[in-house]
Specification:
This protein has 484 residues and is of the alpha+beta class. It is 46% helix and 7% strand. The longest helix has 37 residues.
C-alpha cells in the first residue's frame, strides 16, 4: 500500500456550542425553560435574575413591530466595563431570594429515607382509594371485608365492575363463602359514593343512580320503569310503542327520558386520578385601540443579567486559574443570555405573525380560521420551517378566546366553490354547529352534512366529514338518534 498526500475541497456545516444551546432553548416549553434557567443560575456565579427589567412588549399588528436587538447591542449591554458599581455590596442573603419554596429538613421516615411532602400532597386520590375509605367507615370485618376488597379491585376507572361474582368468589378462595354472600357485599358497595359505582353494565348503573334519588323526585318511577323494561327502546324512535308498553303518556315519557339524561354514565370519572397539568402562556394577545397587541409573558421569560460585582473581579492581564475560571463563567453567561434573548425575540415575532394572519379568528371565532402552514410564517419572517416548528411546539398563546398552543392556528385546507380555500378548523366548527342544531330524532348523516357544506360552497367528501367527526368525538348518526 503506497502512501500519498492529496488536497481536497469540501463544505461542512459545524454547529457551534452556542448554536446548539440556542436551538435547544428555542424548542423548550416554558416549564422546561424555567428548569434550564434555574440550573444555569445554580451552576454559573456570573448569572443573576434582573427583577427590575421591563417586560418585552410587541407593537400593534397594524403598526411596525419592535426592532430586533442585534448581537452588538447585547454585547454592549453585557460588557463588564459598562456595568454600574453598587454603593454597598450585599453581605447577606435569604433562601427565599434564590428558591421559590422552602422544604425544612428532618422530615425523613424512621428508616432515614427522605419524605417527599409535596409528592404526597399533589397525588390525587383514585377511585379505589375513595371506595376503600368508605369501606373502612362501614366497619366491615372478616369475610365481608375480604369480599369488599376484591370487588373494589375489580372496578375500573369508569366505576364499572368488570369481574363476575364467580371470579370474585374464586379470588377470595374461602370455602365458607358462597355466591349469595358475594352478591350481598356487592349490593353494599353499590350504595357507596359516587352513585352508580359497582354496576356491571350501563342499565344497572342508571338504575342504581335513579334508586338513590329521593322518592319524591319528579318522573323517578317512570324513569326506573323505562330502564327496567324498555331500556333497549331508548335507541329507537318508536315513542308510541314505549308509551303503550309502560302505560305512560307522551309528556311523562319525555320527562322520564330527560331525567335519565341527567345521570352520569361514567360515575368513576367523578373521582379523577389524572395529574393536573398547568399551562403557562408564553405570550399574551390583547385588543387595544382598535389593534391587536402581542407581548411576552414576563413570568414565562424571566430576565437575566451578568453579576456586576463578580464581573469587576476579572483582571484582563491576569492568567491565574481563578481569573480563567471567572472569564469562562462570564463567557458562558453572555452566551446563555444571548440565546435566551434570541429565543424570546423569535417567539414574539412568530406569535405576532400568527396573530396578524389569524386576525379573523380572534374577532369572529373558529369558523373564520384561515388555512395556514408553517411555510407561510417561515417565508414571511425569513426563517426556516424547522425554526418555526420548534417555536410552535409546546408554546401557548393567551387570547380573549382562550389559551391555545401555537400549532392550533395551523391547519390544512380544502377547496371551495369560488376557487378559494377553507381551513379544516373552520370545517370542524361548521360540523359541530350543524350537529348541535340537528333534531334529536332525525340526526344528520355524514352524507347530509357533506351536502349542507357543499351548499355553502365548501367541497368536502363524506369520508372527510366522518374523519373530522370522529376526531371531535362525535358519535355517528345512528348513535345520536334519541326519542326526544
Amino acid at each position: 500500500m503506497k502512501q500519498s498526500i492529496q488536497l481536497r475541497l469540501g463544505q461542512q456545516l459545524t454547529m457551534t456550542p452556542q448554536l446548539q444551546q440556542a436551538i435547544r432553548l428555542l424548542q423548550l416549553s416554558t416549564l422546561d425553560l424555567h428548569q434550564e434557567i434555574q440550573q444555569a443560575l445554580d451552576s454559573n456565579l456570573m448569572l443573576e435574575t434582573d427583577d427590575e427589567a421591563e417586560p418585552v412588549v410587541g407593537a400593534a399588528i397594524t403598526e411596525v413591530q419592535e426592532p430586533v436587538r442585534t448581537e452588538s447591542d447585547v454585547e454592549r449591554e453585557l460588557a463588564p466595563e459598562t456595568l454600574p458599581m453598587p454603593e454597598e455590596l450585599p453581605v447577606d442573603s435569604d433562601w427565599s431570594d434564590h428558591f421559590d419554596t422552602y422544604l425544612p429538613s428532618g422530615g425523613g421516615g424512621e428508616d432515614g429515607s427522605d419524605f417527599d411532602l409535596f409528592a404526597q400532597q399533589t397525588r390525587a386520590p383514585s377511585l379505589q382509594d375513595h371506595l376503600n375509605w368508605q369501606i373502612n367507615l362501614s366497619r366491615l370485618e372478616g369475610n365481608d371485608l375480604a369480599i369488599a376488597t376484591a370487588i373494589v379491585d375489580g372496578i375500573d376507572a369508569d366505576g364499572y365492575l368488570r369481574a363476575s361474582p364467580e371470579e370474585i368468589l374464586a379470588t377470595v378462595a374461602d370455602d365458607e363463602i358462597d355466591i349469595e354472600e358475594v352478591l350481598a357485599v356487592l349490593h353494599r358497595i353499590q350504595s357507596l359514593d359516587p352513585p352508580g359505582v359497582g354496576a356491571r353494565d350501563l342499565r344497572e348503573c342508571l338504575l342504581l343512580q335513579l334508586r338513590q334519588l329521593p322518592a319524591d323526585t319528579r318522573s323517578r318511577d317512570a324513569a326506573i320503569a323505562v330502564c327496567e323494561h324498555q331500556f333497549e327502546a331508548l335507541t329507537r324512535t318508536d315513542r308510541d310503542g314505549v308509551c303503550r308498553q309502560l302505560g305512560l303518556t307522551g309528556e311523562e315519557l319525555a320527562a322520564a327520558i330527560a331525567l335519565i339524561r341527567t345521570l352520569n354514565p361514567r360515575p368513576g370519572a367523578a373521582i379523577a386520578e389524572a395529574q393536573t397539568e398547568y399551562v403557562i402562556p408564553d405570550v399574551f394577545v390583547r385588543r387595544r385601540d382598535g389593534g391587536w397587541y402581542v407581548e411576552l409573558n414576563p413570568e414565562a421569560t424571566p430576565k437575566l443579567r451578568v453579576n456586576a460585582d463578580y464581573a469587576r473581579l476579572i483582571r484582563r492581564a491576569d492568567k491565574s486559574e481563578d481569573n480563567a475560571f471567572l472569564r469562562s463563567h462570564l463567557q458562558e453567561a453572555r452566551w446563555f443570555i444571548k440565546s435566551l434573548a434570541s429565543r424570546n425575540d423569535t417567539v414574539l415575532r412568530v406569535a405576532a405573525k400568527i396573530v396578524e394572519l389569524q386576525r379573523d379568528f380572534l374577532e369572529y371565532g373558529e369558523e373564520a380560521m384561515r388555512p395556514l402552514v408553517l411555510r407561510d410564517v417561515a417565508e414571511a419572517l425569513e426563517l426556516h420551517e424547522s425554526t418555526v416548528s420548534r417555536v410552535t411546539t409546546q408554546k401557548y398563546m393567551h387570547t380573549p378566546r382562550g389559551t391555545f398552543e401555537f400549532k392550533f392556528f395551523f391547519s390544512s385546507h380544502v377547496g371551495t366553490a369560488g376557487g378559494g380555500e377553507c381551513s379544516s378548523t373552520a370545517i370542524r366548527a361548521f360540523i359541530r354547529k350543524l350537529v348541535a342544531a340537528e333534531k334529536p330524532n332525525r340526526p344528520l348523516s355524514d352524507s347530509r352534512i357533506a351536502s349542507v357544506l357543499d351548499e355553502q360552497g365548501i367541497k368536502v367528501a363524506r369520508r372527510t366529514v366522518a374523519k373530522y367527526r370522529e376526531a371531535m368525538g362525535i358519535p355517528p348518526s345512528n348513535e345520536r338518534r334519541r326519542l326526544a
